[in-house]
Amino acid sequence: xxxxxVAFYWCASCGGCExxxxxxxxxxxxxxxxxxxxxxxVALDFKYKDVEAMADGEITVAFINGAIxxxxxxxxxALLRRKSQLVVAFGACAHMGGIPALANFKDRESIxxxxxxxxxxxxxxxxxxxxxxxxxxRHKLELPGxxxxxxxxxxxxxxxxxxxxxxxxxxxxxxxxxxILEGKLPARGTVLSPNRNMCKECSRLPKKPEKITLSRFVRxxxxxxxxxxxxxxxxxxxxxxxxxxGCGERCLKGNMPCRGCYGxxxxxxxxxxxxxxxxxxxxxxxxxxxxxxxxxxxxxIAGTVYRFSASGSLAYKGALLPKGGTK
Amino acid sequence: xxxxxxxxxGFLCNWCSYAGADSAxxxxxxxxxxxxxxxxxxxxxxxxxxxxxxxxxxxxxVAVFGCHPGDCHYKEGNYKAFxxxxxxxxxxxxxxxxxxxxxxxxxxxxEAGRFVxxxxxxxxxxxxxxxxxxxxxxxxxxxx
Amino acid sequence: xxxxxxxxxxxxPNIGERLRIGDLAAAAAGWEGVKLVARHPLLCSAEGxxxxxxxxxxxxxxxxxxxxxxxxxxxxxxxxxxxxxxANPFMMQMVNLREQCAWTTDDVAEATxxxxxxxRAGARRVLAQEPLEQKKIDAESTVLVVGAGVAGMEAALTxxxxxxxxxxxxxxxxxxxxxxxxxxxxxxxxxxxxxxxxKLDRLLHSDxxxxxxxxxxxxxxxxxxxxxxxxxxxxxxxxxxxCFGCDECxxxxxxxxxxxxxTDGMNTRRAIYFAYPGALPNLPxxxxxxxxxxxxxxxxxxxAACPFQAIDYKQEEVVTEISVxxxxxxxxxxxxxxxxxxxxxxxxxxEVYSSIEFEHMLNTSGPTGGEIRRKDGTAPKSIAFVHCAGxxxxxxxxYCSGTCCTNTMKLLHLAxxxxxxxxxxxxxxxxxxxxxxxVDLAREVAKEGVQFLRTADPNRVTVTASGKGxxxxxxxxNGSGKATTIEADMVVLAAGxxxxxxxxxxxxxxxxTTDRFGFxxxxxxxxxAVETNIIGVQIAGCGRGPAxxxxxxxxxxxxxxxxxxxxxxxxxxxxxAAVASADEDVCGGCKMCIAVCPYKAITTDPAKGVxxxxxxxxxxxxxxxxxxxxxxxxxxxxxxxxxxxxxGGLIR
Lengths: 327, 144, 652
What we know:
A: Rossmann fold; five-stranded parallel beta sheet; 9 strands; globular; C: Rossmann fold; FAD/NAD(P)-binding domain; about 25% helix
């Protein structure tokens, strides 16, 4: 009986998810023994045409990380979808846009202009920006088109499961891979990490006061928070309450607030909006001028509450929906 | 932009503003038909997810109407709506939605006139601002 | 597939002639889940309701949409229809096609288009709705009344009349509160204790009322219908079964110089004492702080003098635990301490008195035997009364107590009766006489030769000692801009009302909010004056704000009325069905919901570490659900998914 075929592919990503696979250390050898990897651009020399040559559904599972912003990423995602029985959105970028999706707070024109013209070290007086087609002598060069917005993987292909995290922690990955190989999977569309927020596991919960009233929001460097006290009580925004658990609280144990990379729980599909709602209750609304001032002290709201989930915001039609997968 | 009819979703609290809207209807006071209401028990229920959902579904403007501070039927819900509103205002522009497209008003059950005025004012503002393009176009696959 | 029955009401011409119902019906027929579309000329009529019930039964639909008038008009009606047809009453959505659609535009096409939008939103929402159960819990119908002043007394008597069992707890050793001490009550000039005697007698002797004096509340646990209260009764050291109130023990007590708190220190009392002459119950009490025996010395003077063996040194503190269904807080007021306004001289200048002290003087069983006397025993030849000491002042209490003006007129009138030749002056800022008949006394007083001086703020009057009396400088008199100086042998400062000393402690114990002045905060300023934010806890009397005797009595009765109709012996309490609930498999215990609940309905389950909503306290506002950042807390009937569905259906 042949080993199941597995593909790893990266879209708009940093490479950290590839690292995460390697971070399985010895376990990765067990995985590679149990499967046949048929595509893994960062590590192996398989080509797209090798995948195109396969029969539909020949690949058991494709793990696709990274967000979608280029034509090529969409094309290969679609290709892998055709050729795979299961597609797993691997990591925060594929799940909800991740860090690349912060670009959604700007627009395409200003991004291209900034990168190719305005950056002080760039000399580009003719303001040339990348084109999908350009001619250079006898050669025609093609580049994949650059989209207006950064999309999640499930906006371009149907996705079966989500492995959350930036990157997903080794336990999360191993549990998911084993479940797939053993055929013990939950309902399609499930995010493969517990549907409960971080606070239950957080060692800072016992000392967290029931009522917190802030006089201002602060950045992490502005507060010295003892390692058994809740960040929110000190005015440091911790995304823990709006983030599902399963990561082992690495950041919290490193004395940094959670930044939300595992994404929201099922019933609150918009992680940023959900956290914003909770944070607003830390301000005393009976004092109108204080409310404005305290709201004003919150720097970069969007970047903080949507750090990893900007493509999942309900502000955009077709946002991430709970259970049952895609729209 | 003549002919543009902005779609407005209003979240009205059951005890004050919804009753105020009913009262306006009782008196046959007219206002733009594009103002459509979702009834909630308290303005404190109007969380940002609902507001964003309304924008994403095609609203050009979203209104949250609640009881006057101090008069909330559930004591403090409207204060929560107030703080949420302030944080949401700061967030919306980054999501491509000008802050003026979200409106918070305190309207009591007896203020039919105020209700109609607030709706008309908001409507006029939105007509002047034009449609919220970012949400008229689906974020479909494909470049712009 | 969830079958929905969609009903459209023409409401006569109200909807039928202002939009095209046919278009709505045609559109609805194609919507997901809609099995039946039915229109009717008047759904809320008896015939209409029967039609609804029949159609629901015939169609087998388990949910319905009603496109009709405002839910505030007929949601209950149609819930009733659902229940009658054996469908769950919460599996329905009312769409407001009248007050918020047909009636808001004269353009039929626009109204139709809007009607379709609203209807579609309702049809989508009803698919996401879930059946809800109206739960009932067992409830106590016994009531705890805290405070035995006029408000508490009225509450207790009203409740007891209809067979309710009432506990009345009073921290002082006597009942009747402040009103029972008044020599004369304006405007009728009745004697306070005479007026109250019949009611106090019934209070103390009713089979249904248990009065516990010298008792305070230690702890309150539980909630509406099921409060568990711990009471602590201090020992009087007097056996109520044997004592006849003959006063022999008091006469025998060797400790004679204890500051009498009941006359604000205007005279002294003994270590064993009756609070004041005529105090009820007619039993003395031993004060541990001043009694020689309880300070370690051997003294049995009172026991020896008692002809009925009624003294019991061995009496201990008694802790009682009671179960009650509701609580009435009637803990009264504390008079403003006028010595806090330094310029008015109380506490510094011997002949400056508070209105309370002046009342003590007027009492025939008081420190001066009912005569108006200065500290040297002589009668004053001139008295100046100054209104609003500490009232209507941002520095002290920025409100009007509404009773001191009329009360001061009473004091002026009595002063004139007792000292017809004395020169009386009234210094005021505003004069208010709210209520029928209250101004009559003021008119009388004016005829009695009182000099009235109006000044912008009586708190700016300066009082200095002048010989054995006082000199008052009254600024800007009668709008003139010029100050007037008057001499007076005695000055009386009208003190307003502040919350009683236990208000903060009791409020905190019960979770009741207090207002910016420290009084118990009423549920709604206009419509909920005897309610609080905690269901099952009522407030009455001066603890919730300055009031006169009439007002306090009315409030006591109102508080009782609320409880009489809500807590009926043998009946279970019906709880709000559309409450919030936390999914214990999802909740991470972050506690952010707990802080936002104004009813203290949410707690953390100690074993599971998750949020738990007490459905008996939850009022269904949904603020906690909006706050929950993980979606564990949902507002039943107004869940995220239900509202998303409705929003999704609205706009096309």
